[in-house]
Design a protein that fits this description.
The complex is a heterodimer of chains A (420) and B (224). Helices cover 54% and strands 18% of the residues of chain A. By secondary structure, chain A is α+β, with helices and mostly antiparallel strands. In chain A, helix 4 runs antiparallel to helix 5. Chain A is rod-shaped. Chain B contains eight helices and 14 strands. Classes of the chains: A alpha+beta (420), B alpha/beta (224).
């Protein structure tokens, strides 16, 4: 099942993943780096302290006078010898004027009858500065490498994926209606090449099915007219012979009605197919208000329901005149069919839309099915159930939007024109 | 008046001829493309009823040949295909009218007579029935030379009745004729009664009740 939600572009997704993992790795590697560096520096410091201590001891052995240098070297005579100790300590540093952390090595030395306490120290701030410097250098170098690699990978990915994106664009532009085969660019990537082959096979198969289906529909709709015409003419001849009685005439009329119904059904299905195949070229503009008025006039002559139209400014739109008329006719006849005897139909128009409203008792039960073929809200009506499907199809093929609403006991169908 | 019916569906062709003969037309038949082509080049017809999809050829080619030879026949195209392109092409080639299958014979009859009435085929633009005269050029009806005001639909209805004199017309057939392509939008054809009754009243007041109800649900225009 496809994941819903926001879609992210492939290149962004790969590079984002790469960046995130790079940052995580970098942060994790900083921890051991910090400890290792610190450990080495500490060891170095301790070695340095030991060597200073050794030098001082050697000087004392030679009987030389060694002076203290506060706070890094302190030598004092003592009576109680202690043990060698290495530790961190806080001592006032007169140079800085504040308490500083020092590494301190204390030892006791007996020489020439005297016992000395020797403390040598090294300022720790320096070593921490070194750790920091090492870490920063490491971080910047690695970051620079990562960024460079990120950039190059992205460029590289773009090149590798470019045939894929180009083909995707061509697939999007592919239409079953145009009889052209899909044209995909070849690459040396095996998977892309396989994808192309599969797509070609698939589209060819679909195109063939589509063509067959279309041919079948056209044949059926065309060939059905001849038998219907014969039936219609035969019924006409029988009636014309004046040799039928009342009951037979009624039956024949009934037959005639059904022949017409079949013919109309056929005509409407063909119309739907034609709109779908975009066989109507919208040549020039027309005034929608005028079309509405003509349609209203015809419907008024057909029924008893009152239809009123508010006068409106002309609406110029780009549309095939036949289709425009079919659109208004279907909306109006739908309104006429579902208006109660004492009801009324209102047609209003603005600059960007028109609305056909008719009185009704309750909102439509299943508005989502309204535009389905052969869906009838009320089966008692003698409707083919194709009117609104045709309306929807015309709207879709011309970028018009149709909306149903039930407001203040009125069913309202509004058609919105595209905004330029 | 001599007509050629070029139609490859023989059953349909026979029905058409039988119907038109009762109108007093002389009818000849052509059942395929070659026969149609042969007959139009050999004889002169007042009207040729031409099916587009003839066996072994297109009716449109017959039409082209007809026009090329400078024949004065009126042409009505019959098509099984309700395609606007065919219609436009036919009319462009010089056809006078276009009718889609299935059609009512009374409708074809009305179309043939309308073609004949047009000046260029030497027909009379006026229809006459006793005291009623209809000038189809001005779309005006007269009773004893006095204008009879009619609505658009009443006028069309009267003409349809007059060209299909003595024929039984059901309300479906009438509705189909008056509203043509838009009729399929109607839920039922009861609204036809209003128009028929109005016309009937007007005719009865100034002339006679020529429109008779037959079989309870049909109509016939007769002498009374």
């Amino acid at each position: 099942m496809a994941k819903r939600g926001k879609k992210i572009n492939l290149l962004k997704k790969t590079s984002r993943k790469y960046l995130i993992s790079a940052v995580v790795l970098l942060l994790i590697s900083l921890v051991p780096l910090y400890f290792v560096t610190q450990h080495f520096i500490r060891e170095e410091t301790d070695d340095s302290l030991k060597s200073t201590l050794y030098r001082i001891e050697k000087l004392l052995d030679e009987g030389q006078q060694v002076n203290s240098i506060h706070p890094i070297i302190e030598i004092s005579q003592t009576r109680l010898p202690g043990v060698l100790a290495l530790k961190d300590t806080l001592i006032h540093d007169p140079l800085e004027g504040e308490m500083e952390r020092f590494r301190q090595l204390s030892a006791y030395k007996r020489t020439n009858g005297n016992t000395y306490r020797i403390s040598v120290r090294i300022l720790l701030v320096e070593s921490e500065d070194i750790v920091l410097a090492v870490l920063t250098t490491f971080l910047s170098i690695i970051l620079a490498i990562f960024l460079a690699q990120y950039y190059f990978t992205r460029q590289h990915a773009k090149t590798i994926w470019s045939p894929f994106f180009e083909n995707l664009r061509r697939i999007k532009a592919f239409s079953l209606k145009s009889e052209k085969k899909i044209d995909l660019i070849e690459t040396d990537v095996l998977e892309f090449s396989e994808l192309n082959n599969e797509l070609r096979t698939l589209t060819e198969k679909v195109a063939l099915d589509y063509k067959n289906l279309k041919q079948f529909t056209e044949d059926v709709s065309h060939e059905i007219q001849n038998p219907l015409a014969i039936m219609q003419a035969t019924i006409g001849t029988i009636i014309d012979d004046n040799a039928v009685n009342d009951q037979q005439f009624e039956l024949l009329t009934e037959l005639q009605q059904n022949v017409q119904r079949l013919a109309r059904l056929n005509k409407k299905l063909v119309l739907l197919a034609k709109i779908e195949n975009q066989q109507f070229a919208s040549s020039g503009t027309l005034n929608m208000v005028e079309v509405l008025q003509q349609s209203i006039e015809d419907h008024q002559e057909m029924g008893s329901v009152s239809i009123t139209m508010e006068t409106a400014k002309p609406i110029e739109i780009h549309m095939d005149p036949t289709l425009a008329r079919i659109l208004t006719d279907n909306l109006l006849s739908n309104a006429v069919k579902y208006t109660p005897e004492d009801g009324q139909i209102l047609v209003t128009a603005t600059n960007t839309s028109f609305t056909v409203s008719n009185t009704g008792d309750q909102p439509i039960a299943a508005p989502e099915k309204l535009y389905n073929r052969f869906y009838r809200e009320d089966n008692t009506k003698k409707s083919l159930g194709l009117g609104l499907a045709i309306v929807k199809k015309i709207c879709d093929s011309h970028g018009l939007k149709i909306q149903y609403a039930f407001k203040a006991q009125y069913h309202q169908f509004s058609v919105y024109f595209p905004q330029h | 008046m001599k007509l050629l019916i070029a139609e490859d569906e023989v059953a349909l062709q026979e029905s058409i001829i039988k119907f038109l003969k009762r109108e007093g037309f002389v009818c000849e038949a052509a059942s395929n493309y070659d026969e149609a082509l042969y007959k139009v080049s050999l004889y002169d017809y007042d009207v040729v009823v031409l099916d587009i999809n003839l066996i072994s050829g297109s009716g449109l080619d017959v039409l082209k040949a007809l026009k090329k030879e400078g024949k004065k026949s009126g042409v009505i195209i019959i098509s099984a295909n309700n395609s606007l392109d065919d219609k436009l092409e036919g009319l462009d080639l010089g056809a006078d009218d276009y009718i889609t299958k299935p059609f009512h014979l009374t409708e074809l009859n009305a179309r043939i007579k309308a073609v004949l009435r047009r000046g260029k085929y030497g027909g009379d633009v006026c229809l006459v029935h006793n005291e009623i005269t209809v000038n189809t050029e001005y779309r005006q009806a007269y009773v004893n030379d006095r204008t009879m005001p009619l609505t658009r639909k009443e006028y069309d209805l009267l003409v349809y009745f007059m060209v299909n004199k003595n024929r039984v017309l059901s309300k479906e057939v009438i509705a189909e004729h008056l509203w043509g392509d838009h009729i399929d939008l109607a839920d039922n054809f009861d609204f036809i009664y209003v128009h028929i009754n109005n016309l009937r009243k007007k005719l009865t007041t100034v002339a006679a009740d020529y429109i008779k109800t037959v079989y309870g649900i049909g109509y016939r225009f007769t002498d009374g």
